[in-house]
């Protein structure tokens, strides 16, 4: 039993911790039918649809084809890195930061290995990770906390976009600047790319339409349950195995935990006092300690200031390795490739991320308070 728990904790640490917190909260607030009201089924439904459709895109190698095409215009290590960073940055806005990193970080390792030039892999992956966390901040579907906040506060799409644009633009400029540190010239460097399998045009059209349908549910063009039914019916059934059900269960556990806490008067008073005039700072710091998705769930019931919370948890996605759990994905890929460079990755990652936290804090102080 203990061995199984240990394996699960290593494999799904966020789910296990969230489930533990939910169970503890049940001691304070015994289970009842009111638990149903804690759960935002629209968020779960939209997230499920997006994950299923993106799995379809991955199955037909859509992103690999896009990367392969763009890399034909790269002729040196810096250009290859910049293409991979830009791809991760922009794709994360539509397919989430996690999926963008799962897709393009392994590609980074493969491309530079084929080019017989492995030195740029570490800085490229770190900048891809930051790029995914920054780029995904711009849209409601870019990351789990944005999807939740967009639904929880019913934030208008235009307001959401213009709230995050200053931070995302500033982050993009710093990403571009840091990418210039990757050497441009390399003796004997030639770009070699593995050609992905041929893409099925009909499948591409199918999943593109299902993706638009999923976005329609996010933006309330149609009901979330209609989207779930249609996406499941018209997707390949094998893709149901690819959905990250642990993320959905994590959301359910967090809904229960936060719902129970929110029903306790002394907890309400504590968090409301804590957040009074300090929403951005509190959410940014909380993200460094417990990751930005749990921080979002924890703090949202106790403040009506959706703008500052949105800014804080997204700015807080940079910083420590656990500030965004998407960052752990990149870390695992890199240490599997180069286990002897774990410390160098960690220190470089932390230093680069602190630059972005500093930048976002300055932008907030000057323009976004």
Automatic annotation (TrEMBL):
<feature type="transmembrane region" description="Helical">
    <location>
        <begin position="83"/>
        <end position="114"/>
    </location>
</feature>
<feature type="transmembrane region" description="Helical">
    <location>
        <begin position="311"/>
        <end position="334"/>
    </location>
</feature>
<protein>
    <submittedName>
        <fullName>Na+/H+ antiporter NhaD-like permease</fullName>
    </submittedName>
</protein>
<keyword id="KW-0812">Transmembrane</keyword>
<dbReference type="InterPro" id="IPR004680">
    <property type="entry name" value="Cit_transptr-like_dom"/>
</dbReference>
<dbReference type="GO" id="GO:0016020">
    <property type="term" value="C:membrane"/>
</dbReference>
<feature type="transmembrane region" description="Helical">
    <location>
        <begin position="346"/>
        <end position="367"/>
    </location>
</feature>
<keyword id="KW-1133">Transmembrane helix</keyword>
<feature type="transmembrane region" description="Helical">
    <location>
        <begin position="207"/>
        <end position="233"/>
    </location>
</feature>
<keyword id="KW-0472">Membrane</keyword>
<feature type="domain" description="Citrate transporter-like">
    <location>
        <begin position="20"/>
        <end position="302"/>
    </location>
</feature>
<dbReference type="Pfam" id="PF03600">
    <property type="entry name" value="CitMHS"/>
</dbReference>
<feature type="transmembrane region" description="Helical">
    <location>
        <begin position="12"/>
        <end position="29"/>
    </location>
</feature>
<feature type="transmembrane region" description="Helical">
    <location>
        <begin position="245"/>
        <end position="267"/>
    </location>
</feature>
<feature type="transmembrane region" description="Helical">
    <location>
        <begin position="60"/>
        <end position="77"/>
    </location>
</feature>
<feature type="transmembrane region" description="Helical">
    <location>
        <begin position="159"/>
        <end position="180"/>
    </location>
</feature>
<dbReference type="GO" id="GO:0055085">
    <property type="term" value="P:transmembrane transport"/>
</dbReference>
<keyword id="KW-0813">Transport</keyword>
<dbReference type="InterPro" id="IPR051475">
    <property type="entry name" value="Diverse_Ion_Transporter"/>
</dbReference>
